[in-house]
Amino acid sequence: MLLRRLEKMEVEKREAQAIDLKEAEARSTCEECGEYGHVQKNCPEEAKMLDYMKKREWIPQSNFHYRQGSPQFNARSSIQNSVPLRIQLKELMEEQGKINKDTVIKFKSMDKVLENIDGKVTEVGSSNLQVLHKMKMLETQVAQFAECLSSNERKLPGQPQSPELVEELIAIYHPAERCGPADPLLLMQVTEFSCGGFVVAVTWNHGVADGVGMAQFLQAVGELARGSPSPSLAPVRWDESLLSLPPPTVQSNKPLGLVCLDVTVPSSTIERIRAEFHERANSNGRHRTCTEFEAVATVLWQCRTRAIASNPDFPALLTFTADVRRHVKAKDGYYGNCIVTLRVMATAGTVAKADVTDLIEMIKRAKDEVPDQLLAKNDDGCNGDDQQPAMDEKLLDELRYNLLHLSTWRNIGFEKVDFGGGTPERVMCYMQPSIQEWPYCVVSLPCKEKGGASSVSVVSVCVKEEHADAFLGELARFT
């Protein structure tokens, strides 16, 4: 009897532990995919990557020569079609799902949400306004727009070519191209088509909301447009979080003369890099994976560094933003900025010649430092008492061009916005190359695709005209 009781107690203990584990997983954020509700070892993305390796029967060779039929060999045999230079209008609009032609966007009710974002950034000095950059976002719900085009047409009658049309639809600017103290914090533009589709363009001041916050705001607008009396998630703000910033130590308002390129990192390249990292990083029994962002960031960082061919001893700085809501326990509904900028430093020569797995390790180390950054005291002279001498402008411009900043829009919420016709078929952004002061890329723009692994779209304003062909060539050789 005693043994049976002990066995029963052991079974009950294991069941209780399993329940606690499931509850913990439900509150956890997966490092692999960024979704809630499971941990990394149970991640569907991880399972997909392992299944990819199993089906392909691909094992990286120690001398890094890949046999015919491997993912790398197949990717290199068809590289020319993987890097489109421009978004074609036909590609943008075709194969879009059906949309209700009777959809009416009730933007008049938007004042219920706007009252939480209304106001001017009067407390921020004019020198700091240059830090608050703008982003453009496009929600495409033009399901039947492809019917307006014949199979061989690339533009509508009387309309410019697709890049200009895309700019016309989504590029809405403040009068002086920057958001000043008297300018509205939010601009919206709605374009309706005779076929029933529509485009919603948004420009906002990043000082009032980050990407997750703006996506939450647009989701609330969508709920009101669909007839809800109030948003399901009440907006939360903290006015005291908008602090006065000290004057920057070094500053240059001179644009770098960058060009805008729309590129694609193929899914085969991403899976190959992730599989290679998994093979090397877990050789000693550890369980570590490479995220989609880490793979794409490595490709862009190395290809761009090789393309601009700067002094190999110069720093090639990679920076990227990271959402820290779960680290600081932000309340649900908080839409203000809750991001940090992470830095990865190496010389240009190191980045250009390094193995991709080594670059991924560097990016991971930067991400691991997030908790320490949040807990660190602000004792680095940022209170303005210890100003550094101004840097030579020519040297600063060269260092600026060696920097690459990345921002990812994967799983931040834009793909969930619904104004009444369903979630967007495609989310895009637009940056003005003429005023861009830093090399910049936005990666993982959401786009509905039918079946199979999806490639990653990248909007880049990160190279000058004289380096554009070299950058695209490096991407082609890499993929």
From TrEMBL:
SUPFAM superfamilies documented for this protein: Retrovirus zinc finger-like domains (SSF57756)
GO molecular function: acyltransferase activity, transferring groups other than amino-acyl groups; nucleic acid binding; zinc ion binding
Keyword Metal-binding attached: yes
TM stretches of this protein: none
Keyword Zinc-finger: yes
CCHC-type domain location: 30-45
Keywords: Metal-binding, Zinc, Zinc-finger
Family the entry assigns: Belongs to the plant acyltransferase family.
Protein name: CCHC-type domain-containing protein
Source organism (scientific name): Panicum virgatum (Blackwell switchgrass)
